[in-house]
Design goal:
Blueprint lengths: L1 E6 L4 E8 L3 E9 L1 H5 L6 H22 L9 E7 L3 H18 L3 E5 H7 L32 E6 L4 E6 L5 E6 L5 H11 L6 H10 L25 H16 L7 H9 L5 H27 L3 E5 L6 H11 L5 E3 L3 H4 L4 H12 L18 E2 L3
Parallel strand pairs: 1-4, 4-5, 6-9, 8-11, 9-10
Antiparallel strand pairs: 1-2, 2-3, 6-7, 7-8
The protein binds 5'-O-[(R)-(carboxyoxy)(hydroxy)phosphoryl]adenosine (KG4) and zinc ion (ZN).
């Protein structure tokens, strides 16, 4: 089965041609990051207007790069949520219209589920991809697929969730953020530090510039929320804000510990040290909780999903901590961690295989969650 998939939930317009839910024939992404950079974040009205301009050229490019025509496409998939309503509307309506015009089956895809299914995609630069014999190619399990039961850490611009996945399509929420999502914290802290948008890669790069032979003068707070699998990043974000403001403007009476620490530096604050201290705090909490959850569930594989899964410090720390426990960490290559349409095609395949289809009356769901079942 060959799927044309469309992603338009935020500021990236993506189209991809995916075979058997795993093989990427093409994966085209038009990013608006340089447009939103000057505003320090995504401006929804600007994003949807650019989605409209980009959609058809991106779809055409995806077909061209895959060297296929419409006759080679068996189904169309598009994200229907969560995300920005105006942006979602462009890709979803475009996908439905193409399906109607071509007489093809259509399915709406949950963007968060798609981030998880990015782990089923084969790397495009892999030397060999083991494809089962043709009669089995649309089978549920391929060699090298993630092995159930799984634990997934879903960390994106708006979500931070620990999810138990006993089998395909079944999700149990273990814990989630009580305030900011991990990616949101990266983006907000980067803005405060003057590092630009998107914040995750900017902080990672700034942190890499610090001199590792020197002890980091900053030690930032971690919210452990013991006894739960939940996260909280707003206290950490506020600590960075106080440090930067203290360094720039000094600290008055009753100022917080971090404002006083910043003021003591009198404008001489090291951005690489601070970026590294922030990244360490986020990674420490995400990794510690994920390792404990993996042990308590008894899984042998953990999946990273979402834009923050691109973070090298997090990947390294989790790989290191899980290996001695005999648990594998799996994560998609960076281009498949951030928003893309290949992952939409991967998730769509598993639903289409079960005979699921969406009606052309399917509407956007900006606040869509993973379809959680009650924990057992
Ligand atoms: O999944 P995604 O591309 O979009 C959403 O669905 O939200 O995630 C975007 C988030 C942004 O907050 C961005 O700063 C973060 O992922 N991100 C990173 C890195 N690359 C992207 N965070 C930390 N380290 C990175 N290398
Ligand atoms: Zn995303």
């Amino acid at each position: 089965m060959r799927i044309l998939a469309i992603e338009s939930s935020c500021d990236e317009t993506g189209a991809a041609v995916i075979e058997h839910g795993r093989i990427i024939r093409s994966n085209v992404v038009a990013s608006q990051a340089s447009i939103h950079e000057r505003y320090g974040g995504v401006v929804p009205e600007v994003a949807s207007r650019h989605q409209l301009d980009a959609l058809i050229p991106v779809v055409e490019a995806a077909l061209r790069e895959a060297s296929v025509t419409w006759d080679d496409i068996d189904a169309i998939a598009a994200t229907y949520g969560p995300g920005l309503a105006g942006s979602l509307l462009v890709g979803l309506t475009g996908g439905k219209a193409l399906a109607l015009a071509r007489g093809l089956p259509f399915i709406g895809v949950n963007h968060l589920e798609a981030h998880i299914y990015a782990n089923w995609l084969r790397s495009q630069d892999a030397d060999t991809i083991t494809i089962p014999a043709s009669e089995d190619a649309d089978e549920d399990e391929w060699p090298g697929d993630p092995r159930f039961p799984l634990l997934a850490l879903v960390i994106s611009g708006a979500h931070s969730e620990l999810v138990s996945i006993p089998h395909h399509g079944h999700y149990e929420l273990l814990g989630q953020t009580r305030d900011d999502a991990a990616g949101e914290a990266f983006d907000k802290v980067a803005r405060v530090m003057g590092l630009g948008y998107p914040g995750g890669p900017a902080i990672q790069q700034a942190a890499a510039r610090r001199d590792p032979s020197r002890k980091n003068p900053f030690r930032l707070p971690r919210a452990w929320l013991n006894g739960t699998w939940d996260f909280s990043f707003s206290g950490l974000k506020t600590a960075v804000l106080h440090l930067v403001e203290g360094a720039q403007h000094g600290a008055g009476d009753g100022a917080s510990r971090y404002a006083r620490e910043g003021a003591a530096l009198a404008g001489d604050l090291s951005i690489p040290d601070l970026a590294a201290a922030f990244q360490d705090a986020v990674v420490d909490v995400l990794a510690t909780k994920t390792v404990r959850a993996a042990q308590s569930l008894g899984v042998t594989q953990v999946l990273l999903a979402g834009g923050v899964a691109a973070n090298v410090a997090l990947r390294e720390r989790l790989t290191r901590d899980l290996a001695p426990l005999g648990i594998d960490l799996r994560f998609p290559p960076v281009v498949l961690c951030t928003d893309n349409a290949a992952m939409i095609g991967a998730a769509a395949w598993f639903h289409l295989r079960l005979g699921e289809r969406s009606g052309l009356d399917l509407d956007v769901r900006p606040n869509l969650q993973l379809p959680f079942a009650a924990a057992q």
